Fold these 4 entries.
Entry 1:
Amino acid sequence: MKNFIKFVSISLFSLLISFSLANASSGIFKVSHDLGFGKDTNLDPITKGRLFQVIEKTMNRLVRNDLNGVPSPSLATSWSANADASEWTFNLRKGVKFHDGSDFDAEDVKFSIMRVGANKSPAAKGISMIESVDIIDSHTVKMNLNTSFADLALNLTDYRLRMLPSGSEDTIGQTGVGTGPFIVDKFDAEGTTILKANADYWEGAPGVAEIHIIAISDSQARVQALLSGQIDMLRYIDYKQKPIFEGNSKFKHHVISTGNWRGMVMRTDLEPFKDARVRKAVRMAVDRQALADLVTGGAASVTCDHPVMKTDQYRADLSCPQDIEGAKKLLADAGYPDGIEFTVYPSSLEPTWTPIAEVVQQQVAAAGIKVNIQVVPSDGYWNDIWLKKPVAMTRWNQRPADQALNEIYHSSAKWNESLYKNSAFDSLLDMARKELDFEKRKSMYQAAQKVLWDESGTLIPYTVSKLIVTTARVNNLDEVENWSVRWHKVTVN
């Protein structure tokens, strides 16, 4: 009966919901997305082309970060592990319904979790230890791991691990059916996607009746759209653009410290970057603080090329000052006494990419490294440039240490953007996951970060302090990182 209900037309259900909204929700909240996945854009949270500006508002996770970044209940109300943390039991929230009217239960959890690995999703590495999911009863599941893993709840906060209706494999990319505060009314990746408020949302009816998500590929065009009132929020405002909005009563500002990073990635399978000494020379030749000051106005925290956020419990305390002479020596030792030359490909998809490339170009020249910059179109960047060119620009949202290290640098990771492969590094990560003693586990993750400083193909000069700007009519937007925002609380005047 459950599967039959799930195939009932969502449009009829959405129509019924809309009749109950008159007194609960009002106004239209307008945001944008950058169309970075081009023709591959879809609403399946585990695909490369997922449109997270929609997914975060339409789908829930089992576990989410609380407003301080700590794992907290969402569709799972509680969880516990056995003695060696190889089995985890999750108790599920009762009375929750999907947008198609069907009940959320254990069957959906099993489906949502197991399809991640079966579909070889980029998200699979973070939960690769989950071997199977047993249904204990309608609202209890047991996750059986192939190893001990003390941080499972933390990894389940991954922004892509949304709960979907079982059996929705072939339709979810277009329907976006979830349990979240908003329902997909119209999906148009290249135009305007319209979300309607879910009056029956388990945390309470949303404050706005509709959210319009508008495709605007160019970063400058997005700023102009905010200034003109076409959209109500931009998540990423270049700090050089901050004066445009300062002192203007038409706008509100939110500064959020994050683990998000922007950087440059070198393919370690291609010359001259096959040699770890060359990669480190490029990274050593960068003055990170000066770069951060020039690009962000100081609204950033310097990092030494590892992707672990400053507040993470496993963060390694490393030092990485600019060392021009050291970089020259490494290049000479690698067989490049006269230096190297390469081209990097930024785009306006990310407003800081070109400034980062320009500063790097200037800073590394003293070490005999010539950087050419070729600006490319934003449309389809992730498909045509990233993972394709020898050197490209990159950006990532913050992740827990284990997830970031495994997802981006493990030899088997689907999104190993530099194609970095090191069996000893892989072993460190594998052992850390099995280690139940916190201090020992911490030392392993920190050792892995030291390896990346010595060998990585990714320049990560800083993590971002994000400037969010909204129009003055927007209220109740949580001043927290992306995945902790409670979207149902937002209202507009």
Note: Residues 257-466 form a domain with the Dipeptide-binding Protein; domain 3 fold (CATH 3.10.105.10).
Entry 2:
Amino acid sequence: MPSQPLDVQVLTLTENEDPYGLEADVLLLGGTSDDPGYRDRVAAELSAVLGVDAVRLLARREAGSDAGAFTSIDLDLPDRQALVWLGLGNGSSADLRAAGAAAARGVSRPALCLLTRGLEGDQLGAFTEGLLLGGYSFSLKSSTRQDDRRFTVLASDATGVAACERAVQLAEGVALARDLANAPSSLKSPEWFADRCLEVAEDARLRCRITTAAHLSRQGFGGILAVGGGSVRPPLLVQMGLSGPAKAPHVVLVGKGITYDSGGLSLKPVDSMAMMKTDMAGAAAVVGAMSIAGRRRPKVRVTALLPVAENMPSGTAYRPGDVVTQYGGATTEIVNTDAEGRIVLADALAFAVARLRPDIIVDIATLTGAATFGLSRNFGALYANDEQLAEELTQAGADSGDRLWRMPLERDYRAALDSPVADIRQSATGAIPGGGSIVAALFLQHFIGDTPWAHLDIAGPGRSEADRLEISAGATGFGVRVLTRWLDTFGDRR
């Protein structure tokens, strides 16, 4: 993959070791807002060791404690090029992730992160996570230089080291999801995506099976075939599996995998197409989460279903007015070929209910622009038919940084999906202004039955126009962290 991960080294020092003796061009220090004296204490220590008046230098530059506040001072020393003071905010996980990301973007040379002295366990992990996520980059430039920066993070004990190791795992899963979604669609055919899934499965010791278009046809996956029918690159279904403990609950994760979305015959405007290579961000998030789960082995059985297709206009494309037979026999009247995500998800959901018999289903998709109307870019929309599941995912989102906001499955809107010619209409025809995300969720619910289910609409946070906090411009990898957190804690809550 074209991303360049930072080199982060985690060290533990004995009481007698001098941290200032470690090789680094930059000394990175920091403190939280609840300990305003920390800066001066550390600066005094530095002054004694390095022979510079660090107290005066930091005071003169008004180094602050807000999360990510960044103050750089040239030390003019032969073995130390710069001193950086980094604000850690209130010490929360969110502030520490933001601080780590600021460090990754602001420091261009090897750095010794002395700021982590005083941070323990999950706090240290959060900072390291932000450091790695903020340092993410993706490029296909012919002259791309390798990132040779090394950040040395100091841990006081094995607990801190373990937290950093988990942060590295998590960041690798997010980077994988970002890479998959950022890859241009000229490269990213359904077959290419399936090949990447096979590689991930082998590395993470997961089962993986690819169902080709011919087999989808024989098994009745009419939705996936309809959406992918306009492309010369045929659709497919990826199934990944993780075995869990005996009698462990079975969770199915479903991710929308539209490798490019032109809108089909309901063609998108040009300005809306540029980022449609990321319309498989839901599937990418599931792959990233599965790669982590394969290493951590949570106390749950997990199956991932990834319907993968390219939505293109052609003489073989599906049309508004068509009636599509979904997996299991339910029929859908097509209103808009640009509402293709719910059609492929419906096949996967129906298959999961009928053949896999899961205890819980969670699907994730860049499904509707309407989801951004009230939530914008910082929250994913959460829909659920089960209160406990909704609470678990909301908490996992708050803890992980992939924040979710619960939205209503408003039954009064369901009538907008009634069709005179099919079991259900694909989408409303303008009768519910602004309610497109809710209506899409109601459509998906039609294929769930009584199975506990949640739907995550990540059209807003799944992509970003600019770097912000630990998010990088382009595909954000949103969903990997919340799914991982939820799977990690699944056994503790049930």
Note: Residues 7-174 form a domain with the Leucine Aminopeptidase, subunit E; domain 1 fold (CATH 3.40.220.10).
Entry 3:
Amino acid sequence: MPAYWLEATVVILGLILLLIEAFGKSTSRELVRRISIGGLAFTLVPLYFAVAPSAENAELARFYIYDQWAAFFKLLAIVATILVLLMAYDYRKVLNQFTEEPGTEHGTGEFYALPVFACAGMMWMASARDLVSIFVSLELVTITFYILVAYMRRQVGSLEAGVKYLILGALSTGFLVYGIAWIYGVTQSTNLAEIGVAISDPESALAANPSPLFFGLSLMLLSLAFKIGAVPMHLWIPDVYQGAPTPITAFLSVGSKAAGFIVALRVLEPFFNSEITRNQTTLIVLVMAGLTLLVGNLAAIAQTNFKRLLAYSSIAHAGFLLLAVAAWHPADSGSLSSHQVVSLYLATYLVITIGAFFVLVVVRDSENSDEISAFDGLGQRNPSLAVCATVLLSALAGLPLTAGFIGKFFAFQLAISSAAANQILWLGVGIGFIGVAASFYYYLKVIRAIYWREPANTEEIPVPRISRVVILTLTALTILFGFWPNPILWVIGG
């Protein structure tokens, strides 16, 4: 089956869910939940058998590519969406407080349908090879999140988060459109392959004066920084993460970030592969990486709200990923490429972060609070949940023998190996080590609350069945990938 039918299937699934929500009975919300999860799980089957569009369809091939990286990031998008929808199932008690009829599930069907459309946009982003298709797919994802972030419209925090996301999202869209127009003006093309050819010609006018090209690239990177949560377009993240429904926060943290990075890799690839633009591109990305690492890790130290802590943690992880991108390394037989390192990092990050958000949903449901203080005495109130939370937080910090260490290890390894040819990368490596040291402090602050603080309430925290299964599974994978990352390496071809 041609790969583009995957996106079409997911869009059709989303439309079916909206029709059920609109015309079904009040009891149809359970059906919407099950069809959304089951439909996406079914999509994993044709994903395995999908093939690139035929060479006869040259016009589509100009905009759409299906390669190893597209397949991998489509897989990440589907898995992330399924996990988010499972999280939403246990989050419905909180969600129902802010519906049109509080205490009921009336009008909540869209909450399970809209992530499906976001998934379709992310899948298309993974295959976009033209600046126009990148823009369209990116906007599909962004517009969907406009609604989801402000979904709890009776809550002031959610509305505030939605407004901030809308304003900065519109600003980033403006940067993207203007950047695309500028690059088109200097290269006469929006196709990334043709742009690569245009900027690689040493006899061209661009070689003599590449400044207009870098101006356009900088505008596009500002827009992509909004999607991946990097400086200077990070200002929305703490407030939006805190105000949005927790499943949507998790979705922004993993799904949106992964989709943003595959686009960034495709956009930057021709610039890194050209001798004319390589050094300047490295400098731009490295500056973004260094600032993102510093802002994310240092700002997280002072946080008392767990969702805001994870927000700044998300910014910090974007910095580590950008460091791997700045240390650009094409695929060869000797070591992992930048594509492979970023893919490995995002895969482990998805497992760990979704697990942490599942723990938060359980604690939030019991304590009605997202504060770190809600974790006080968790070791006494639910020892097994406390152990899982400890493992996941340690992995986010990058503790050895966890999946989080593997991602950071390969990112640093790539940066150090590339620093031999480009000494400025040592600056990024140094800032990265500072970030790692800071992360241990603020993650251990939560672990200290779990085991060393007395709880205000000694009642046991119950864990719903779905959350229990998912948390235990993700915790086990966090430990397994820390010892044996080979399954992920096999998928990404490492």
Note: The chain has a mean pLDDT of 89.
Entry 4:
Amino acid sequence: MKRRIFMEFQARNDRYDQMQYRRCGRSGLMLPLLSLGLWHNFGSLNDPAEQEQMLLTAFDHGITYFDLADNYGPPYGEAERTFGRILKKDLLPYRDELIISTKAGYRKAKGYLLSSTSLHIFVLTNACNLNCVYCQARDHEHAHVEKMSFETAEKAVMTALQSPEHYLNFEFQGGEPLLNYPVIRHIVEYAEKNKQAHSIQYSVVTNLTLLSDEMLDFFEQYDVRISTSLDGNSELHNANRSDRLGVGSFENVVAAIKKIQARNLPIGAIQTTTRQSLSKSKQIIDTYRELGFQSVFIRPLTKLGTAIPNWNEIGYSASEFVQFYRECLSYILELNKQGKPFSEGHAGIFLSKILSGQAQNYMELRSPCGAAIGQAAYYFNGDVYTCDEGRMIAEMGDSAFKLGNVYKNSYDEMMSSPVCKTVCAASVLESLPECTDCVYQPYCGTCPALNYASEHNVFKRDARGYRCQIYRGMLDAIFAILFRNDPKDIEILQTW
């Protein structure tokens, strides 16, 4: 190593003796049997001396082909800078012996823009057997219970299958989707018969209180992933999620979770934070751990549906939520240091963007977001909306985010509609006046539907607003941990 730091690099004279080379097609270009791809070993988190040694050792053994891409790092672009530095310092005399490939013009961070709609949400009914205090799916347009018919389900499936995206996720929601379980079965079986080249993953978002063995058998047969809501211990959960008579659902949810786990089936859960949660960060996390979960997704309240009239009882300021989030992160890190692995979902998404420059498939934290181009929501009457939040706003009486209807419009017609184009434009942070010069912008995202609900403008994003302050506060909490530069903390965060 010292020879390469203080002396000019001299390649071995016998570097081509042991390597095999083969002609590339009809060209005169000879390529080594092995190449070196830089991927994620050549970013700012790795030792520069070790990076240099790997590249020069490869060249000394006859490897002349090096593969790069502008998303290699992390952060993305860093591997190209690393190779350029070593090329200039050590390998420039051998430039005519090197083959260097890259993927110019493609950013992994925006790679989802090369895909089409992958998440298709089927809203099977407006009915629900619970009466949650923050319900975002309460239908104000329809005074009576509605369910998706078999015919509408088939029309929705065939519309979804028009997406050019190979990998699709069909997600069943409501209301409570298990109240229309026969249509879940029909959609899965119908899609399997008609999917052709598509690969489909199925999931259901349910309160679990109606889950039967018959349903579980079917979900296991078709690998239907199950997700539920769990707000903490019995006191917290029951205060938020009770039935029409005020009876809490915690015991039924826990029983269903254990039944699912007994079959070794995966199950996810999302926590929603209310005012009552703010002083109970440890209890919430302990409840998740006691039930066998390896992570928790700490979610703030959204001002939609019944959360609006109940805000004085369940709501809070952005700063109050951020303090709660900091307490959660601190406790989770403490647990990890005790040898109890656990993670927080929002932090994992932010860290992915901070440390690797790559956006996970979480629509609200992408730019542009996933509305229409990443997801679509099929209402029980065949109406199609840009996203789940768009149909929630429709349930409040405003159809501004409606793309069309499966009986009247094709997938291509809806994806090229003015609504789709407007929502996509409104979610590009780099072009929004309030966001373009914000230091948090590379790691953030926006939701035109929530902007519209709160400010009646899909393009407006008040930097002093509730959700903006929450995201900035969450990022500050994560950066504070990173800036401490505690090796143990960094090691834990990298696993998330």
Note: The longest helix spans residues 318-337.
